[in-house]
Structure formats: structure tokens, C-alpha cells
Write a structure and sequence with these properties.
The protein has about 180 residues and is α/β, with parallel strands linked by helices. It has one domain: UDP N-Acetylglucosamine Acyltransferase, domain 1, CATH 2.160.10.10. Helices cover about 25% and strands about 25% of the residues. Strand 18 and strand 19 form a beta hairpin. The chain starts with a helix and ends with a strand.
């Protein structure tokens, strides 16, 4: 693969989001999620077709409730039985992978997009992204934010309103800002 801005983005290197190829990919995704969000509640097949076109993969029985918002869509993988509630935002310049039977409450944000810490580099334009991986049978409470590079283990519960800035292991309840393990399940 040529060393394009898209290739840099997917590798986690600094990239320019203003690149024409990336801009076109975002515009495509925005058009698809706008149609998905506007589809009538009784148009389940139309919604499903739009999600299949928008997302990188959509497992059997996965449900996304509108409204739903993302940057690219192509980096999002939802396994079988995933449930994404109302008003979720997935910024996906890096992959977002969600394991089977995981549930996301309303207003959950999964944010792979990141920026350089050096302010001079940051204002010059390049961005970067780090993937988010969420295991199977996870429940993420409403209003939670999962930050770039985070992995959440299987069978874990994240309390509503949490800000997840570091990895969370399998089989725990974790809550807060920053999100911390409260107890093992």
C-alpha cells in the first residue's frame, strides 16, 4: 500500500485529515448515517442495508438505534448481538472493535481520534488515532466516554458517565472519571 494519509491514519501515525481521500470518505459516511438516522422506524430492512454499507462489519442480530454518528464507518466492527443505543458517537479514524453481545447505553462516545500533545505540532494540523477494542458481553453505561487506545475486557461493566482513559480487565465493574475498577464480578 502506498504511503497515503489513509495508510498513515490506519497505522496510528500522524496524518492530515484534510486529505481529499479522507474528506471524501467522511462525506460518504456522513451521507449514509444521515440516511440511516432519517429512515422511518418501520423501515428495518432499509436501516440494516445502510448499516451494512456504512460499517466495516455488522454481525448477525447487531442493532444500532438512531441517531448514530461516526467519522468513517469502515473501521467499525460490531460482532453478533451487539446493541448500540440512541445517540452514540464513534470517531473511527482507527479501528473500533466490539465483541458479541456487548451493550452500549445512550450517548456513549468511542473516540479513537487523538492529537499531538505538543501544541506547535497540534496547531500545524496533523492528527493521529489509536484503536478501541471492547470485549464480549460488556455493558457500557449511558454517557460514558472511551478514549483512544483503550481495551475493555470481556464480561465487564462500565458505570454510566465514566471516562475510560486506560485499559480495563475482564470481569470487573469499573466506574468514574477517570474510570477505575470498583470490584471483580
Amino acid at each position: 500500500m502506498a504511503d497515503t494519509e489513509r495508510a498513515r491514519m490506519l497505522r496510528g501515525d500522524l496524518y492530515l485529515a484534510s486529505d481529499p481521500e479522507l474528506t471524501a470518505a467522511r462525506l460518504r459516511a456522513h451521507a449514509l448515517w444521515r440516511r440511516f438516522n432519517a429512515a422511518p422506524a418501520d423501515a428495518a430492512e432499509e436501516r440494516l442495508a445502510l448499516l451494512r454499507e456504512l460499517l466495516g462489519s455488522l454481525g448477525p442480530g447487531a442493532v444500532v438505534e438512531p441517531p448514530f454518528y461516526c467519522d468513517y464507518g469502515a473501521q467499525i466492527e460490531l460482532a453478533a448481538g451487539v446493541f448500540v443505543n440512541l445517540n452514540c458517537v464513534f470517531l473511527d479514524p482507527a479501528p473500533i472493535r466490539i465483541g458479541e453481545q456487548t451493550m452500549l447505553g445512550p450517548n456513549v462516545q468511542l473516540l479513537t481520534a487523538d492529537h499531538p500533545r505538543d501544541p506547535h505540532v497540534r496547531v500545524s494540523g496533523p492528527e493521529l488515532a489509536r484503536p478501541i477494542t471492547i470485549g464480549a458481553r460488556v455493558w457500557i453505561g449511558g454517557g460514558s466516554i472511551v478514549c483512544p487506545g483503550v481495551q475493555i475486557g470481556d464480561d465487564t461493566t462500565i458505570g454510566a458517565g465514566s471516562v475510560v482513559v486506560r485499559d480495563i480487565p475482564d470481569g470487573v465493574v469499573a466506574v468514574g472519571n477517570p474510570c477505575r475498577v470498583l470490584r471483580r464480578l
